[in-house]
Design a protein that fits this description.
2 copies of one chain form a homodimer. By secondary structure, chain A is an alpha/beta fold. Chain A folds into 2 domains: 31-121, 3-Layer(aba) Sandwich (Rossmann fold); 140-263, NAD(P)-binding Rossmann-like Domain (Rossmann fold). The first copy, chain A, has helices at 7-29, 44-59, 75-87, 106-112, 124-131, 140-150, 171-180, 195-199, 244-247, 261-278, and strands spanning 3-4, 34-40, 63-69, 93-96, 160-164, 184-188, 204-207, 225-228, 232-234, 237-239, 253-254. A 6-stranded parallel beta sheet of chain A has the order 1-11-8-7-5-6. A 3-stranded parallel beta sheet of chain A has the order 3-2-4, sandwiched between helices. In chain A, strands 9-10 form a two-stranded antiparallel ribbon. In chain A, strand 5, helix 7 and strand 6 form a beta-alpha-beta unit. The longest helix of chain A is centred in the N-terminal third of the chain and has 23 residues, at 7-29. The model of chain A has no long low-confidence stretch (mean pLDDT 96). Chain A binds chain B through residues 107, 123-129, 131-134, 157-160, 166, 168, 172, 175-176, 179, 182, 184-189, 191-193, 198, and chain B through 107, 123-129, 131-134, 157-160, 166, 168, 172, 175-176, 179, 182, 184-189, 191-193, 198.
Amino acid sequence: MAHLIDGRLLAAKLQQDLTTKAHNLKIKLGRDLCLAVILVGNDPASQIYVSKKTQKASEMGISSRPHILPETTSQAELNALINTLNKDITIDGILLQLPLPVYLDRLESISQIAPQKDIDGLHPINQGLLFQGRPTLAPCTPQGCIQLIKSCCDDLTGAHAVVVGTSVLVGRPLVPMLSALGATVTLANSKTRHLATITSQADILISATGRAGLITADHVKPGAIVIDVGITRHNGKLTGDVDFEAVKTKASFITPVPGGVGPMTIMNLMANVIKTAESN
Amino acid sequence: MAHLIDGRLLAAKLQQDLTTKAHNLKIKLGRDLCLAVILVGNDPASQIYVSKKTQKASEMGISSRPHILPETTSQAELNALINTLNKDITIDGILLQLPLPVYLDRLESISQIAPQKDIDGLHPINQGLLFQGRPTLAPCTPQGCIQLIKSCCDDLTGAHAVVVGTSVLVGRPLVPMLSALGATVTLANSKTRHLATITSQADILISATGRAGLITADHVKPGAIVIDVGITRHNGKLTGDVDFEAVKTKASFITPVPGGVGPMTIMNLMANVIKTAESN
């Protein structure tokens, strides 16, 4: 039976350290650390995410400035707001809540954010630096995945990690991050043939597809570490990519959904705000 | 017995098209297309590479401006030269010949090149755009690898590609490039355990390590496409990563060394010069 990787517990520990750091930094800078959050439109899930983030910031003594824009906001208006925030020296980090309404260009919008305030780590220059193994602001969810893996495995050298899902937010950034730690990394996608044959070779399996129940016991090597990034609402209940009940009997370590990767993502967002404030 | 993938032939075809393109562009712009080449120090292999590149440019009606700097050049001096070339509107592309002398910082130096003149596709912002699947200047060798693969395989959807070697120049960029074409991609490194087990699952195997003879017949799945990027001088003879004689009996397609990837790399450099000139 697999050990549970408790993302809430790990995030709580991280929160303690980061809160102290934020507090000291606030004294040093003589002002509040501040996170600007941009939300365009009325997506209910996004509203919940934004409120979770600002609430967590507040708990940690970090102030936030939400900008809630109507669904009619043009690309030019969005860019103009980002530009104002880029220049505002009292703002440490800028978070553009995704997804954007379809008529706005996500990558174009992200590229407007000053790289040194890009706490989501999605600006092409930050992703390029990550790709090259250089210091940068890394995306929050992959950072959380790495911390969860490291909490149960000291050394990834030579381990085979399989990442399912190729998003710019999670799957792709994990490749250079895991490779830099010495792992062999396989990036699988929705077209992958014989997925179970590929994933069942993984010492570390990370699924980030949002397809509930995609990863069954047949997809998992006995003793593997399984990190479930997927999160979908299924029959009114939050479900991951992994068939938890079946897989937990086979894996050595597994993250639950909820309570696995989620809390780590928010905490790494706070870590990135502190990092940007430190370099100011 | 494998079919030979003739890089020289493919490069020659590409050269014809690109020469016409360069010629038309020259008329349109009313000036020569121009490639600036920077070489620091006296590395004999680098001198040969630089002269091959300028010679190929000349054949195609593209002029070049070599800057040969002494081994004593400081980082500040190198940066200053790059900056001058960035601002020179008669220069379309800047090539910084690698490797640099060890006392210079390669990634720092590359970051000085204006992204729109970075014909090697190594600037972090270009690598980030590539990583995100957006239009950019892609590195030349991986571009060549993709063209060689496509010359013998129309559709990579669902194919398993294994890349051995994690360099920023070849191995890493191949991951998003192959993944964007629908392939499952595995990135192996020098610490990979059971390398032969991993590589022998590859429908497409690309080796870019510079370790002569690393890939034996045991590493190759029958019918695989094998692309050999490695090039080392071995007993006075150029050798790839792949044991060509043994592997050619097992693969369906294979590149020779020399005459495989090499000619395609130079040709993609010219393609990138033309691309930068076009967007001027």
